[in-house]
């Protein structure tokens, strides 16, 4: 199955509100790939949204692309996923946006945080 860095679910991306994210995707598989940042409001950076053939051409085998956007006015746990063909069902991971430094959560700080992702494995 297609994975990111050999992990399923894919790697955790952890950022803080206000951070600029630069995420380089190197495509080492035989499928074209794009990555979508589910729930992120892309203000003036719609080209980083990821839907194949809508906001970008897919990243072809052996090619790479740097997604570049800033998280504005959002915090919480979202997720990223492939946004082309059936890969969107199995290629995903958490995207965790923490509050800005020294800004508390709007609730008591949890003892522990553990992302839980619901998904399915698509067989070829
Ligand atoms: Cu999505």
TrEMBL record:
Group of enzyme by EC: oxidoreductase
InterPro entries: Cu-oxidase-like_N, Cu-oxidase_fam, Cupredoxin, CuRO_1_LCC
Protein name: Laccase
Domain of life: Eukaryota
PANTHER family found in the cross-reference section: LACCASE-17, MULTI-COPPER OXIDASE
EC numbers for this chain: 1.10.3.2
Pfam families with a match to the protein in the record: Cu-oxidase_3 (PF07732)
Domain Plastocyanin-like: 1-100
Gene Ontology molecular-function annotations: copper ion binding; hydroquinone:oxygen oxidoreductase activity
Homology family: Belongs to the multicopper oxidase family.
Annotated keywords: Oxidoreductase
């Amino acid at each position: 199955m297609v994975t990111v860095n050999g992990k399923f679910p894919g790697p955790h991306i952890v950022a803080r509100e206000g951070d600029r994210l630069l995420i380089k995707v190197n495509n080492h598989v035989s499928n074209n790939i794009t990555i979508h940042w589910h729930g992120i409001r892309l203000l003036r950076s719609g080209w980083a949204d990821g839907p194949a053939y809508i906001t970008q051409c897919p990243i072809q085998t052996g090619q790479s692309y740097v997604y570049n956007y800033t998280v504005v006015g959002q915090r919480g746990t979202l997720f990223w996923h492939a946004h082309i063909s059936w890969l969107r069902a199995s290629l995903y991971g958490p995207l965790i946006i923490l509050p800005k430094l020294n800004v508390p959560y709007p609730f008591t700080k949890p003892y522990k945080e553990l992302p839980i992702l619901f998904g399915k494995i698509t067989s070829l």
